[in-house]
Amino acid sequence: MPTTSDVQEIQRARLTSVGLGTPDPTLSADDGAVARVVARLGAVQSQELHSSAWGVAQRLAAPATLEQVQAALADGSILRTHILRPTWHYVVPEHLAPLMAATAPRVRRVMASTERSYEFDHSLLPRRHAVVADALADGPLTRKELGVALAEDEGAPLDAWHLGQVMMHAELDLIVASGPMRGKQATYRLLPEQRSWDEDEARVHLARAYVRGHGPCRAEDVAWWGTLTRTAARAAVADAGLTRHEVAGLTLWTDGDLPDPAPVGTARLLSVYDEFFCHDFKSWPSLTSDGMPSRWLYTGLVAVDGLIAGGWSRVLKAQTVEITVELTDEPSASVWAAIEAEAARYGAFCGLEPTLVRGTVGKGTIG
User: Which of 110, 272, 363, 364, by CA, is between 20 and 30 Å from 148?
Assistant: First the structure.
């Protein structure tokens, strides 16, 4: 069983691989940097638009603004779609087809139980998807606008749940993905025809992508991230040309040498569902303190040296952003200074003046 110090050393190496260690000077906030961050991670969970954008931006040497992340979505250099699991993710176009081929079959199986309870009619999907594709031929549309097109074709509107399922299946079938934001409304864009991938070949691509952006990690982490069975994940990892390491009784994988660990005292204010902890971290020993409030998982996590040290929340106002942190232990002066630096970076991302206080989290905005 690895000790806390063993796990901390592994986690500091993972901070480097996921882009949260010493900032990579090649990842400055230029026009292609946002896409390079997403490509490095394989995919980025993104159901919370504001928070997930921060998760991408904070990995840049000079953090991007929210507008720069939204610009990457608008020009299609990153896409937002349902992939890996039945939730939203950012993904770059070159990863879209293989990751979808690897994960869509199991995502559909996860969706099937609820669809049976709603008597969802899969036989109608080809016609409905043809209507969607025809409507999008002239440019991106909101879900509401696509609902109008479907209602005109069918003579009756679909309810919100059925419309959502129609669009999710269109994403899984690589017909659509995200378009530019229209104010606060998301849109869909029509995708070009995608290369066909063999499912086994796609799973190997997924394993390589995950390990490159998250290692050192276990095959079980690949399984969780990609909604794969553990057997399938182990086979994909074994075929992906990766490097095996035996560390403190754990079998870990990288795409080469173990990454240099992040500097001692590295502190990060992580986005909700950040990719650093986007695995079955509860099965890792020593990552969490006993009695850690579950509400932290739905605001944001404070990570110090790769371990969960607290939670944070934020309230966005017209001119300021109020940041509250709640920590398991009293921070050293250097750790608190690192948290203050993170708060300053977050303020720059938002374009707001940050204030930082200690207190109970849970009332801030996350979306």
Answer: 110
Residue corresponding to tokens 């409905």: 128
For the record, the structure tokens of 318 come out as 């017209």
Give the N- to C-terminal CA distance of the chain in Å, as an integer. Answer: 38
Stated as kind and residue range, the H or E segment containing 6 is: helix 4-17
Chain centroid offset of residue 56 CA: 9
Does residue 212 have a pLDDT over 90?
yes
Q: Which amino acid would we find at residue 336? A: W
339 and 302 Cβ atoms separated by less than 8 Å: yes
Please, what sign has the CA dihedral across residues 85, 86, 92, 94? positive
Q: Which domains does the chain have, with CATH numbers?
A: 23-190 (no CATH), 200-254 (1.10.10), 267-358 (no CATH)
Q: Which range has the worst mean pLDDT, 118-122, 238-242, 326-330, 339-343?
A: 326-330
- The DSSP secondary-structure symbol of 57 reads H
Q: Beta partners for 89?
A: 45, 81
Strand pairing partners for 35? Answer: none
* pLDDT tens per residue across span 148-200: 999 999 999 999 999 999 999 999 999 999 999 998 899 999 999 999 999 99
Biggest CA pair distance of the chain: 66
Q: Which two tokens stand for residue 161?
A: 């749940």
Distance CA 48, CA 87 (A): 10
